[in-house]
Amino acid sequence: IAGITQAPTSQILAAGRRMTLRCTQDMRHNAMYWYRQDLGLGLRLIHYSNTAGTTGKGEVPDGYSVSRANTDDFPLTLASAVPSQTSVYFCASSSGTEANEQFFGPGTRLTVL
Amino acid sequence: GQNIDQPTEMTATEGAIVQINCTYQTSGFNGLFWYQQHAGEAPTFLSYNVLDGLEEKGRFSSFLSRSKGYSYLLLKELQMKDSASYLCAVLNSGYALNFGKGTSLLVTP
User: Fold this and answer.
1) Using CA atoms, how far apart are residues A93 and B84, in angstroms rounded to an integer?
2) Mutating which of A6, A30, A37, A43 best tests the B interface, going by the most B Cβ atoms within 10 A?
3) Tens digits of per-residue pLDDT, A15-40?
4) Sequence-separated (6 or more) residues with CB below 8 Å from residue B40
5) Number of A:B CB contacts under 8 A?
6) What is the pLDDT of residue B83?
7) Sign of the CA dihedral B47, B51, B57, B62?
């Protein structure tokens, strides 16, 4: 693994189903984030984690949950998917230092029907 | 609240110079970032400004005025590969970035 990876690359999901998007980084970054990107709305923060064991809500957290059991992994779960959650999801990580450059994963394209 | 504004679209000619502006009104300020995003790809870091002034990095420069809540990204000697979306983002409290909606730049021959 080099950098930050996401799985799956894309997924078509029936409404009401549960789905977990995976994110793993090998840079030993303290902070991790989940964004969704929709046409005309830009990147919006769903949840974040400043360090392992802690999480926080971003701008659009409803319908999503996260966990941060260790430094490397930050899964995003949709408990019961709805069509409005159709989007491209990006995971990102940063060292959490002052400059706080964020490194983004390749994204997951999710379609909820 | 958070408000970050940048133009939706811009067009420029190969070899020219283009300036993409970003204005912001945010609660707290710990720096401003510019990211580049090609279609279908992840955003990649371009620049970071936390103090007023100009930061130059090759063909790209970024300027910040904290008192005016204003930044711009300057791209010189435009190349076709510079066609992309450019995202302005503000780091306020904590570590989370607030992104503008992005500026789609088209470079024409």
Assistant:
1) 22
2) A43
3) 999 999 999 999 999 999 999 999 88
4) none
5) 59
6) 98
7) positive
